[in-house]
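Both lines are given unchanged directly below:

***
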Amino acid sequence: MAAPTLQQASFLLANLKSDATTKPLLQRCQDLVKIIDEYPAKELHLIFPWLVESVFGSLDGVIAGWNLRLLHSRSHEFNIVTEFLNPCGPMLKLVYKLQAEEYKYEIPVNYLPGPVKACIQEGVLPDCPLFHNKLQFPLSGLLTLNLALNPFEFFMFNFAFCLITPKVSSSRFDLSYSTDSAYFVLVDTYLKYFLPSEGNVPPSPFSDSRGSVTAPSPRYSPISFAGYGVHSPSLLKHHIFHQPSVNADPSAQEIWRSETLLQMFVEIWLHHYSLEMYQKLQSPQVKEPFTPTEEHVLVVRLLVKHLHAFSNSLKPEQLSSSPSAHSHAHTSPLEEFKRVVVQRFVQQKLYLFLQHCFGHWPLDASFRAVLETWLSFIQPWRYTGEKMNPQPDQNRTVPDKWESFVQENLLMYTKLFQVFLNRAVRTDLVNAKNALMVFRVAKVFAQPNLADMIQKGEQLFLEPEHVLHHRQPRGYLTPSQGGSFLSSRQKVVTDMVFRVKSHVYSLEGQDCQYKQMFGSDLRGAVMKLIQMIAQARQTAKRISDHASEVAASSSFMSWFGLGSSDLNNTFSGAEPEESGECLKKTHEFLDRALENLCLIFKLNQGQLSQLISNLGSSQDDGNCRQLPDCVQGENGLILTDLGRRQYGGHMSALCSRPDFLGRLGRHYLTDLNSTAATHHRQSPTSRRMLERSRQARLSLRPLASYRTILLLLLLYVFGALLSLGPVSSTLVIVAGGFLYGLFMALFRDKLKTH
């Protein structure tokens, strides 16, 4: 029977491949629905790998598949694809149909994330249970290893890998993606279905007693540390040829699909950097093993937000961070999963992922995706599902119950804040998008009670070792057993210290040199950022003022046909973010960022004002060196008498020349009218006025006389009668005035003699 079945399956596969090039997508999906319903698992098994590849594309990126990442909601094929791949749709029905059998599908180890692949090739068991009991050992050696995955694992691996598949001829920042793509919508749908915040995971439509998800042993139990940071199974160096056997724990079957989906997403999307690999990446000679895209980071943010909502839906009585076996004997696997999902499955890999992005992402506005992913993780209280108070975020106090989360994720707050500071001082803060990012970070950290929680976490980490051991007795007695409340409190403090130290050492290594967020070194970096913010504010104001002046000038010159039609970009080289309303937003963002930084680090307002005023005065001094002598008035700088005559020496030198240029300069820059001079009464005032009229100066008073205005009006009317426009008339008048000046310079002396 095997031969006819194989022959029939081959014929079916050939027809499907032929239809893929001739039939529209809707008809192909309709045909697949019938095939999935009517054909037995034995025949569907042979077409499954091809079908998965035709949907998600090949792992090497050569075959594009259905282009889920580029398929938007506006497309007529969007609904067809999302319905076909829905958790209750035909594709998952096929997966469950095959899952009921013992079918396996191979994935080359070379397509696994770098750290996982390195562990396997070194003969070390990876820390993720997802990859245990899956290895196939060919005779050719370790380099050609494959993973044998069940249908659900194979489907989710290809779906997750679709996000990071190296597309042919694609740039790092593909502008064609969006958050309404079919891929983004399906990720959100799968997360809500398999990791529900309300209710339970819907049961799979088959009874599976062969679950291949290995439950950790002991399952989610508190970990006994031989030393700080030793909590990863990979550090125990289990040899790859001694894989543990499958533990078919009945309670694990309830959520094994949820675990599989989460572990697959975390491994494929986040686990591209290990602590050792990250330390090597600090050398500029080392090439990056993996470069995430902006689209990739946005999907990771969606995952982070949903995991917070999933974890926060835990029932209040199950919130204990260190439960005993007795207290959770009747806890459902899903509730237990919610309790440990963030710390156990996500924290370390997300930290290294974000740290790499912070250090290697270009200094442009696309970093906003990374920034918001970080801010989403460090604010789990935003995803509680509770109705928040109408008060703004700035005045919303972080509840005390989140203190343990802050302490157990201390580096997410302190280390990444320090790395962000290093980025901020290297960015153009005049750009409104960059200014917005600085404001966003300052606003989040300025939430009441958050800075105190972080500072307390740092104090716990810095607790001396000898004090910690001195506080810790051999055993603890409860008050009912003769112990004291003091010893109980000491135990709580000791446990908190232990958790914080374990967290830091596990993420940064035993020999890490911790730099305090509220220490003197970082305070200096914050003051440097404040100086740059003040400089950027002044620069933005100068650009805005200049733009306003040019806009006003353009509106005046437009009467002559010389104005620019683009009044938004009114200065050379202006970017969209550096013009108009964006400059006003820049000033607003930076002002509020300064206020928030003062709140976070409890900076003295007087010192801050002095720092900014000193910066402003130093810049004003630099500008004044290029300006004539002036004083500060209510409406700005005002020229003094000295300033009005400061460049008069150059004019006097020109007018004193005996040649033609001297005569031309005397005509325009002096008022040496001999007849007027002889008629002046020789009083002291008259002599001063005569002496002043003989000084070389540029006077625009004649332009304000009624005689000049009337003459210009007549000339423009005369030009209009000759069909001359305003520009042509202006050019004729200017040319006539210049020729008159030449004539007077040449023949003034002769005219005087006559």
Summary: The chain has a mean pLDDT of 78. The chain has 29 helices and five strands. The longest strand covers residues 105-108. The two ends are 131 Å apart (CA to CA).
